[in-house]
What we know:
The protein is built from 13 helices and eleven strands. It is α/β, with parallel strands linked by helices. It has a six-stranded parallel β-sheet, with helices on both faces. Strands 3-4-5 form a three-stranded parallel β-sheet, with no helix packed on it.
Amino acid sequence: MRLSAIGDVTHVLPTVRTIQHHWPQTAITWIIGKAEVGLIGDLPGVEFIVFDKKLGWSAYRSLFALLRNRQFDVLLHMQVSLRASLASLAVKAPVRLGFDRARAKNLQWLFTNCSIAPRTRQHVLDSFLEFPRALGLQETVMAWNIPIPQQARDFVAKNIPEDRRVLAINPCSSVRARNWRNWDIQSYAQIIDHAARQYGLLTVLTGGPSAAEREYAEAIAAKAANKPINTVGRTTLKELLAVLERAEVVVAPDTGPAHMANAVGTPVIGLYASSNPERTGPYLFRQFTVNKYPEAVRMEFAKESDAVRWGKRVRNPDAMNLIRVADVEKRLAEILEK
């Protein structure tokens, strides 16, 4: 049971791969969100059941009806939202494994009967790997292997010149209240021009279909002297994944496409100030993060980052201004020159 979001869904994949490696005969059913299934719904060996939260109570009725006559051995309840916990009641299983009490927020502990080992200050992906460990699978498999269909690769071939080196920039995080994770437009434009001058990189802008993301991308493209290819709002999740795979490096704040790039092995320069990259950074490439979270915490709470609650967000619209263009240029050099 992991309904959302895109980044967290990619974090669950090593758990799936670990179970498949050790127990290849095990049938796996994944209850997942409608958007998220578009990214991984063709994963071999996994049955997907879509829970569309936009349908409200009818989504619960449909799930209960679908699972009425089914029995499972184990439920891995991997989401602490109350919505996910209510949906989990549709699953009949003698073992209902959830988070340890400290992490079982929103009363998740009421919907489970056993828990993973308590750990402190873990990356989200590592917290998910505690689930197979609780089942006795100590050797984990760090693999994603998300299928990319030929249609998605054809999209890349059609829209990105084959002879160009590519920088992908996913400038925006999801549109939510008080979710100030986006770097400023002028700085993104400067990175586009620096990457073109210094390394001959063609920039491709990526992102979702919201009006805010489209407007942000258009503003960045207008500011840059070296015009990027703008694919924001014009790709499916599979096509977006193929674009991120095609890139040599990705620049992004704390957002789902950063973790998608991580999943296909493309180095990611994560831009982090309002959230802690040690908890939510691109898992394989945290060493390339521009990490201003400690400074943002000091600015907002007058404390060191290890003195605030793990996962504490900085809700300050100025936090991302702590990231300088020179910081990102340095990371580009580390990846492209070394």
